[in-house]
Structure to design on (255 residues):
């Protein structure tokens, strides 16, 4: 119960890593705001937490919209008097080169992946200062190095790492810790979409697994447990960090 009685707002919590994080946070004692653009998915996640004995409430949010983020903040404060943790997890991935990406696709990906971190952090920071809380941003190993046909995604994730470090410096004096997680290939929605675009999805998944030192891609809960650590007092001296959770993928292609 490392997060007992703390209130965590998690975006993109209706599926994938966000859902796993919501479940792990609930299991660790946190009261969870399950925020997602798909309210039905958010309700399913909240129900799963409640069924396991936790406390959770679903709220719809489009993190690319300032109005929607303000609504999320207002509704969260109606439910709970404090905010201790913000997990900026919501994100999208468009598997295209710069040449093949339309301006609309570029703007949407930057608005969701990077703009969502900005808008949510800006809105929730005054309340996180009161609780000496913390922010966890979901970046990617693609923030350190690029892969083919995901130019906008790589750009947004690299920017999230830089923004994380800037916020850590700016708000450390306020007692607010800011970190990010950089997953490798995780068996979640974005990765499934990528594999589905390949000629042989099963073969692509197996080949990708072999590129990791542990010989497999990760599970969402393996990233979620890292998030619980960063949100807890066990990480009280950790801020401005980009925690890599990738089974050695970014260390070099495994044999």
């Amino acid at each position: 119960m490392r997060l007992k009685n703390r209130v965590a707002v998690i975006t993109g919590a209706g599926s994938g890593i966000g859902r796993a994080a919501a479940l792990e946070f609930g299991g660790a004692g946190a009261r969870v705001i399950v925020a997602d653009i798909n309210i039905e998915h958010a309700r399913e996640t909240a129900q799963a937490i409640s069924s396991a004995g936790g406390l959770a409430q679903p709220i719809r949010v489009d993190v690319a919209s300032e109005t929607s983020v303000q609504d999320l903040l207002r509704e969260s404060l109606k439910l709970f008097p404090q905010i201790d943790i913000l997990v900026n997890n919501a994100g999208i991935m468009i598997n295209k080169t710069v040449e093949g990406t339309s301006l609309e696709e570029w703007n949407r990906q930057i608005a969701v992946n990077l703009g969502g971190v900005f808008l949510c952090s800006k809105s929730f920071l005054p309340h996180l200062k009161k609780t000496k809380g913390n922010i966890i941003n979901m970046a990617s190993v693609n923030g350190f190095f690029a892969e083919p046909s995901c130019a906008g995604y790589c750009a947004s994730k690299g920017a999230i790492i830089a923004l994380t470090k800037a916020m850590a410096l700016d708000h450390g004096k306020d007692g607010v810790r800011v970190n990010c997680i950089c997953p490798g290939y995780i068996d979640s929605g974005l990765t499934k979409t990528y594999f589905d675009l390949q000629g042989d999805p099963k073969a692509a998944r197996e080949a990708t697994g072999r590129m990791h030192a542990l010989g497999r891609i990760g599970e969402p809960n393996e990233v979620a447990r890292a998030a619980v650590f960063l949100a807890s007092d066990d990480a009280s001296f950790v801020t401005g960090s980009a925690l890599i959770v990738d089974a050695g993928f970014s260390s070099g292609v495994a044999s």
Summary: The chain has one domain: 7-185+221-247. The two ends are 39 Å apart (CA to CA).
